[in-house]
Amino acid sequence: VTLTVSTTGGNASSPLLYGIMFEDINNSGDGGIHGQLLRNNGFQGNSPDLTAYSSVGSGVTLSVDTANPLSTAITRSLKVTVASGTTGQVGFANAGYLGVPVNADTYANYFWVKGTYSGAVTLSLYGPSGTVYATKTITINSNSSAWSYYETTYTSTQSYESNNAWKLTFDASKVAGSALYFDLVQLFPVTYHQRYAPLNTHTIDVAANWGRYNGLRNDVATYLEQIKPSFLRFPGGNNLEGATPATRWKWNETIGPVHMRPGRQGDWGYPNTDALGLMEYMQWCIDMSMEPLLAVWSGLSLGGGIISGTALTPYVNDILNELEFLLGATTTTYGALRATYGRTDPYSLTYIEVGNEDNLSSGCATYASRFTAIYNAVHAKYPDLVIVASTSQASCLPSPLPTGVYTDTHHYSSPDQFVGMFNEWDNYPRSNGNGVLVGEYASTTGNDGSATYWSNMQGSCGEAVYMIGMERNSDVVKMASFAPLFEHYDMAEWSPDLFGVNSTVGSITGSTSFWVQYMFSTHRGTTILPVTSDTNFGPVYWVASSQSGGTYYAKLANYGSAAASVTVKFSGTGFSTAAQLTLLSGPQLTANYPGIVSITPQTSTVTGSSSAGYTFSIPAWGVAVLAVTA
Ligand code: AHR
């Protein structure tokens, strides 16, 4: 294959093309990217039990208590009953999300306690055989009439493999014949990212110059940051919608102090603490320089419960309240509320999406009217916001669609189907200003229909072909995100996901598709350039671009079973003789699996010139990016 890239002409490409989609699925939030490591700490969700807890010492009984609410939001607590005559150290343990990761790190520990106790409390991280890795003893004075709050830090000097746990113990003789209550135990390693004053008065964060209070897991966020995503679509996905309208994701229940967040039964079968809430999402965007793409509830719930017509008005108003919370001056009601939570400046927000997959769950028939009600209210007040419809199915959309509205398309398909969709956007109308979001896509099956566990080279190559098709049309395809993003891979309900982690040291694993995202996202041009070729597309596909600074890129995918020799020429002069080639390749059905990585991008130098070209080979099912400066 010989390609000649024109250094003039072409289309502007979307600077936001490669982003990420996040919802709490696969325990990717609680137990995943959120930094808090202890599970079931607020006994949230539909039917909380003692999941993750166990008693420490004899003479101790644990139960979930409802008679001593911590707050109006956290209404249950852990009752630790100590039998008469008990002595020694007793208490309770929490095994986290199938293990508490213990690394050479400093840990912040927060907890609430109620019940009469004056004396030492010991907090420890320990291993499966009971060996204590890090510990701290503090003195507390609690009483039975009100909850008392404590916080401390301690350090582990090294990392420990897996199956670790956390425990809190106290002097049994001081409680024997009675009980203590504990709530919202929280354990954070140093969190991502820049150090700053915390959202509230947690003095240890200021003093120790910690990461963000209630922040993201540093190792996970830092790994993700490699792909330099340019937007974050959140909080769903299905997890926005709720099983019923009443159990939808509610922005106003995810803000403020965590002990005032009730959490909810998430839509993926487990409780969400909502400690990763609206402000944390916005901070995540700031820290990774991503545009937020905020999904707002459109009246459709997963169980098919739909609110439409005049009944939708309170929900439309709620969206306006949410936007005022994010964008309003501190003189507004909700802008003032934001300021009380530590953020005076309005956030930057340009994109909102109305619902999720409103073509499904019987949503289609009413979506046009629901979308229009929300669009009219939001557009009237915030005319600069770009509003995204959650489906591209014309029969579900208002006709005509208002100018400037984007539509969202989702594809969960086989590798062949992705290749078949290479041209999907070639003839998309450009005249009406309706941009495209491909908000979710992934190769989820083999060509034979078999389920894909972790992305393999053929699937990732198929995605790359589709991505090349999107990039060629990125004057109109504005944003695209693989989904789902992330999994705790011992707690996942959906495969494949882009990357994963569990509680074992060094377990973060990027799939082959993660590396395709990395390669495409980190080599972005501002202009998509015309290319002439001596052959048609298939099995090799390509797109070329340039950055204003003078770097030229050719992205290629070889969706074929034989290696392909490729020469890339450029029409201009002044090109470096050394081009950088980044190559991802491996056998057709080979995947990276949790903790077992065989395929990562490899870089090498290709010598050539713009007129003679840069010649290299792309192995079967390989994905390549050539970068050369001029
Ligand atoms: O990405 C997983 C799910 O797929 C999303 O929650 C939903 O939008 C889609 O159906």
From TrEMBL:
Stored InterPro entries: Alpha-L-AF_C, ASD1_cat, Galactose-bd-like_sf, GH, Glycosyl_Hydrolase_51
The keyword Glycoprotein belongs to this UniProt entry's keyword annotation: yes
Transmembrane segments: none
Alpha-L-arabinofuranosidase C-terminal domain mapped to chain residues: 439-622
Keyword annotations of the record: Glycoprotein, Hydrolase, Signal
Reactions listed under catalytic activity: Hydrolysis of terminal non-reducing alpha-L-arabinofuranoside residues in alpha-L-arabinosides
Enzyme Commission code(s) on record: 3.2.1.55
Gene3D superfamilies, sorted: Galactose-binding domain-like, Glycosidases
Pathway: Glycan metabolism; L-arabinan degradation
SUPFAM superfamilies: (Trans)glycosidases, Galactose-binding domain-like
Example of a GO biological process term: L-arabinose metabolic process
Protein's name according to its UniProt entry: non-reducing end alpha-L-arabinofuranosidase
Species for this entry: Diplogelasinospora grovesii
Lineage of producing organism: Eukaryota, Fungi, Dikarya, Ascomycota, Pezizomycotina
